[in-house]
Write a structure and sequence with these properties.
Length: 406
Amino acid sequence: MTPSFATRAVHAGRHDFNDLGVHAPPLDLSSTYPTPDLAAAAASYDALASGERPRGSAVYSRLFNPTTDRTERAVAELEGAEDAAAFASGMAAVAAVLMDARQRGRHIVAVRPLYGGTDHLLSSGTFDLDVSWVAAQNIAAAIRPDTALVYIETPANPTLELVDIADVVRQAGSVPVCVDSTFATPVLQRPITHGAALVLHSATKFLGGHGDVLAGIVVGGHPHIARLKHLRAITGGVLHPLASYLLHRGLPTLELRVLRMQQTADILASRLAESSQVQRVFYPGLPGQDPQRIIGRQMAGPGSILAFTLVEDSAEAMQRFISTLQLITPAVSLGSTDTLIQPPAALTHRIVDPAAQAASHITPGLARLSVGLESADDLWHDLAQALDSVASAAPAHSGEMLVSTA
């Protein structure tokens, strides 16, 4: 019998515990490892430099750390992948994926919206990439002989658009597809099973789950991951073992957290959709917001992130709304046990091209809500009183929309 996801989440990465005689994951903080046999150490060094595991001494923690290795094995198992590479942050993971792609070609096809930092890295010219921004249905037409990667995020940050991964893979042909699946987690979506070559997570979010770890992780086949580990070794984007330990610690409760948060998000999305102070709600679980029927076919559920636009779509109204919240924390990031809210136009996506922001409905009055483990009624009470305060404080005018100066 194949164990359930919940069981695997508890036991993944514990393959050597019996041999070690431990019950909790060990934390190895060594920065270097003894190398008394120089020939053996050299062979191990060569293996590590190629992205393989050590053959004897681990030599140096930038090359390999057993605590990090257990975490990588655990996440790879949960995603149904052969291997994984952990990085110091989600953006370090994105950078490694793009550097690896640049070694194969200069052209990348990408679908917006994406997390603002990823969008900026693709657009900034940092890696001398030629990026074609296309709608998901137009990927095939954008593929060129020098296309090295197709990059998508689903559900997309911040407005939760869903992309059909299998269709993207079909359009991409022999070009590898990387899916940022941070919002979904392997609880709700496993892109490898739909043909993706790489799956990326800002593990800072749901995988860690407690707002106390900064990490990124990429899973995929051995050849891809070996190259990423080589890049990690030479560029230094390694995940610290303490962060690896915290990340591994968060995995056993991942399914419990995600499913509970999703239940609450569904309630809040429905109530926000009925509010007279809300212009629009973005949530795949609402009627009409999953026209391709991704949920049930690719995703097991709509997730616990939602976004909504205030009726008064302005930076001033957003400031009044945010400052009135009493329970919900105004902060970037997501996937933590407490509920977080932030306006993407002012923070996470402010560096995205204004035209691209507009095309993705990222306006001054848009708020992204990461639902935590609090009571749905308590969260709704906080949202409702803040929405009421915005409405009561709105200046009298003739009906025209206030224009943001931010």
